[in-house]
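Worked example

This section walks through a single chain of length 62. The input is the sequence exactly as stored; nothing has been trimmed or padded.
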Amino acid sequence: MKTRHLKPLNRRNGLTLLCSGVLITSLMLLLIWRLASDPLIPAYALLLTGLMMTFIGWRFIC
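Given that input, the structure is written out below as tokens.
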């Protein structure tokens, strides 16, 4: 039985993570600002996801 090996993240994947993280973070900040009175737990979760994607992408680029 052959095992499949996963390729590690490279610089291109880091750039993709960074760009998508910045995009998700900015969209969620705009959504939270526009709908401030409603409960926005999914928006907060996506905001944290975007921040983590930005951080991980930044670490793989540098």
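What to look for: Helices lie at 11-34, 41-61.
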